[in-house]
Design a protein that fits this description.
Order of helices and strands of chain B: HHHHHH
Largest sheet of chain B: none
Largest sheet of chain A: none
Helix content of chain A: over 70%
Distance between the termini of chain A: 55 Å
Strand content of chain B: under 5%
Structural class of chain B: mainly alpha
Strand content of chain A: under 5%
Oligomer: heterodimer
Radius of gyration of chain B: 18 Å
Chain lengths: 134, 124
């Protein structure tokens, strides 16, 4: 039965990740809340899990010329410095505290997503209105 | 060589700040970089599809670096992660097809509500 659960969770994570809805957050929540895995280990699994999926997506996106490399380079330069410092910090923080920081981040992302989904819904509505008038 | 205007410096500074925020989330929380990168890229003038694609181009190398730090500290075993990859790849292909077909506002709201509920559950 375990393989079925793993398949279901990983397929759902892949779908949500692909839709840009935060699939990684979903996988970490499942691993910690339902599989009772320590927070840091769940985060590590998500990082390794994300790499091949992101690589595959990036091949498609760069073939379609959707990647803006000029914007990516400055983001990556500062991102590398931050990721090194903060991933070392994550490994030094107590798992319970890390789980709470993660939970606050998940709630913040959820609230943000609720508002942006509303904005886009209104935008889509306006676009449809414009099309029906024209 | 033409000098850069203040506006151009500000735009570049914004991208550096966005990158630092993405790296911080990726390193500290092992996820969430894309959730920060996509709206910040959209604010910098990218259309939604380019923002999504560019965010993956940023988060992929950052995930490789933080993944290596986590592995070197013994926080994760490769075997534990590999079993999730085939399903994840299949899900990514399904998601890419769904993205073209459905307006995902309702899905987004449902997922956002679930995230808030799970976050509260994790705090308790």
């Amino acid at each position: 039965m375990e393989w079925f659960t793993i398949a279901a969770v990983s397929v759902c994570t892949g779908i949500f990740a692909s839709l840009g809805l935060g699939g990684g957050l979903l996988l970490i929540v499942w691993l910690t809340v339902f599989a009772h895995m320590p927070q840091l280990q769940a985060q590590g699994i998500n990082l390794v899990f994300f790499i091949p999926i992101a690589a595959l997506s990036l091949i498609f996106h760069s073939k379609n010329k959707l990647v803006q490399w000029k914007k990516m380079i400055p983001m990556m330069l500062s991102g590398v410095a931050a990721v090194v410092v903060l991933s070392i910090a994550a490994n030094a923080i107590d798992n319970t505290r890390l789980k709470k920081i993660f939970a606050v981040f998940v709630i913040a992302c959820g609230i943000f997503q609720l508002f942006t989904a509303k904005d886009r819904a209104e935008g889509e509505g306006k676009q449809l209105e414009g099309r029906s008038k024209s | 060589m033409a000098d850069k205007s203040i506006g151009e410096y500000l735009k570049e500074g914004y991208l550096y700040a966005a990158g630092a925020a993405v790296g911080a989330a990726n390193g500290l929380l092992g996820s969430g970089g894309g959730m920060i990168a996509v709206p910040m890229l959209e604010k910098s003038g990218c259309d939604p599809k380019s923002a999504h694609a560019t965010s993956i181009a940023v988060t992929l190398p950052l995930s490789v670096i933080s993944g290596l730090v986590y592995l070197s500290k013994g926080a994760v075993e490769l075997g534990g992660a590999v079993k999730y990859i085939p399903g994840g790849l299949a899900g990514a292909v399904i998601g890419a097809k769904l993205l073209k077909k459905l307006s995902n506002v309702a899905v987004k709201r449902l997922f956002a509500a679930a995230m808030i509920a799970f976050g509260i559950r994790m705090l308790m």
